[in-house]
TrEMBL record:
Residues 34-232, 248-450 form the dTDP-4-dehydro-6-deoxy-alpha-D-glucopyranose 2,3-dehydratase domain. This is NDP-hexose 2,3-dehydratase. Coiled coil: none annotated. It holds the Pfam family Hexose_dehydrat. It comes from the Bacteria. GO terms for molecular function: lyase activity. InterPro entries: EvaA-like (IPR005212), EvaA-like_sf (IPR038153).
């Protein structure tokens, strides 16, 4: 006779409270916050990494397929650069896109010291980072990397994330990445708690969430992968009310997904229109948006010491910003149901503004992205957060954006926003970020800092 089934609570108590305590702890038990930038600098200098641009002909183990022109690795692993054709009722376009179907792991180890959760962060070199070394998750690896397709060494601490005990997992969710540059890319975002001793070498350090939040105020210190993992974790939100109920918000978002007719299909890279392939780059004829280039990486101090690879480089820095208002004493941000050709679903919730302004400089004001001027022309006393962050440095070269949270008013961001936009609370955004394909990677970066950026503001 089998034992009776054992029921458990649907929600594990205390996770959000423990994370909130860590966020409120400004200094940790191991490393002072002020020491982290210098620690990253030391790893940058001691690594001796050299990243240089090379012509496509100098790529090692990469080549253009003779039939499609797709740029691929000889192993068949890692990723490919292919063409994408996106068709919408009002427009269509073709572009290069990164195709990387395997799901990687972005994992942060957590451990209590003196009753407070600390997180094991890594000083990690990525060739596309403007300053090479940034604060990264404990594990940041594609399946090709952690199965050693490159023939390199093992990924440290990987074992904690491959088969963790269920009661050790604080957060675990598949999240999308940049839909403008990746085709349906997802990574597993995880925070896993450990009890026993964890050997820590010089490239890793324990920090509280409060320390990481401080570091998120500094330009190009906390990398994209760390930001998205932290944003996916549950947060305490004292928001009994909002402009929209949670069911109404979901109904609006489902309606946005349903009303957008987006058809995206992969196509041969050599056949895309409006792009030209040269010795050193694949770029648009008009020079806008981004280009595909090749780099050589030497002295990497990674699982392998050096390699070559193709990489996407945007033409100019971007602006990513949330408009912020308070309604009835409750903070809200203006989210945009944004279409990107590489999304698995038609739209995801994005910041109010997400663009490279120079791409639209030639257009009249009415054809530029909505609310862009509210970000570009915001007075300093209305800017709640302003920091430069780079995107994922393994696939994108010098992809920097200024991330903003700007307090606005009825004249610039009305209570009844235009179609495709919706006011949401930080708590609602955090709730949605706990699920796959709701909140895009740029919005998750801003979500990671929302509570500290807008906390304590008065009602409008």
């Amino acid at each position: 006779m089998s034992a009776p089934a054992q029921l458990v609570l649907r929600a594990r108590a205390g996770i959000a409270e423990r994370l909130a305590l860590s966020a409120a702890t400004a200094e940790g038990a191991h490393t002072a916050t002020s020491e982290v930038p210098g620690w990253l600098d030391r790893h940058r200098q001691s690594g001796g990494t050299v990243v240089r641009r090379i012509p496509f002909a100098e790529l090692d183990h990469w080549s253009f397929a003779p039939d499609t022109g797709n740029l691929r690795h000889s192993s068949g692993r890692f990723f490919t650069i292919e063409g994408l054709h996106v068709v919408r009722p009002e427009a269509d376009w073709q572009q290069p896109i990164i195709v990387q179907p395997e799901i990687g792991i972005l994992g942060i180890l957590a451990k209590e010291f003196d009753g407070v959760l600390h997180f094991l962060m890594q000083a990690k070199m990525e060739p596309g980072n403007p300053n090479l070394v940034q604060l990264s998750p404990t594990v940041q690896a594609t399946r090709s990397n952690y199965t050693k397709a490159h023939g390199g060494t093992a990924v440290k601490y990987l074992e904690h994330f491959l088969a963790p005990q269920r009661d050790q997992v604080l957060t675990d969710v598949l999240q999308s990445e940049h839909g403008a540059w990746f085709y349906r890319k997802r990574n597993r975002n995880m925070i896993v708690e450990v009890d026993g001793d964890v050997p820590v070498d010089d490239a890793f350090c324990w920090l509280t969430l409060g320390q990481i939040l401080k570091l998120l105020r500094l330009d190009n210190v906390v990398n994209m992968d760390a930001r998205t993992v932290l944003a996916s974790a549950p947060a305490l939100r004292a928001e009994p009310k909002a402009l929209s109920s949670d069911p109404d918000l979901l109904a609006w978002f489902t309606g946005e997904r349903a009303r957008h007719d987006v058809r995206a299909r992969r196509m041969p890279l050599r056949a895309i229109n409006g792009w030209q392939t040269g010795e050193h780059s694949i770029s648009r004829v008009d020079g806008r948006f981004f280009r595909v280039v090749a780099v050589s990486v030497e002295g990497a101090g990674r699982e392998v010491g050096g390699w070559t690879q193709p990489i996407i480089e945007p033409v100019q820095p971007g602006i990513v910003g949330f408009a912020y208002r308070v309604f009835g004493g409750v903070p809200h941000v203006l989210a945009h149901a944004r279409v990107e050709g590489g999304f698995l679903d038609t739209v995801e919730l994005a910041p109010t503004v997400q663009c490279v302004p120079s791409n639209y400089a030639h257009l009249p004001a009415e054809d530029r992205p909505l609310f862009l001027d509210a970000m570009l022309n915001a007075s300093p006393d209305r800017i709640r957060y302003s920091t430069v962050h780079s995107e994922e440095g393994g696939r994108f070269l010098n992809a920097e954006s200024r991330y903003l949270i700007v307090e606005t008013d009825e004249t610039t961001t009305p209570t009844q926003p235009p179609p495709g936009y919706h006011w949401v609370t930080p708590g609602q955004l955090n709730w949605l970020a706990g699920h796959s394909r709701y909140v895009n990677v740029q919005a998750r970066t801003l979500l990671a800092v929302l509570s500290t950026a807008i906390g304590g503001r008065g009602a409008l």
